Structure prediction request, 128 residues.
Amino acid sequence: MKVSFLAAAVSGVALFAPGMAVAQADITSGTWMRGDGLAQVRVQRCGDAFCAINVWVKNPGDEKVGDRLVLNVKPVKPGQMEGSAFDPKRNLRFSSKITYSENAMTTSGCVLGGLLCRSVSWNKVSSR
Prediction:
């Protein structure tokens, strides 16, 4: 999505609640490799939301290390969260859906009222 997550959401994105502590910890603290192998993001808390921050980009262009995406998502059922995401670099807000397990995640995002949607798969690289 910009952050790899925006690239993931719109061109390719995309956490939690009480009773989901183990899964939440697995997603909110770690580094994830995008399915195409071209970017890695670190997901961490940033205030009341989560941030996905690019920590590695194979071919920097529009996406750069340090780009971030702010995720305001809430659990809707075990292994699934929904809400919105904000790309501060582009001043773009879009819907976001995340499905996850301990070591895999799929992020989806839509803009223009759901007219343009994309999904991206992610694999956990590190829990730190």
In short: The chain has one domain: 4-123. The first helix runs from residue 4 to 9.
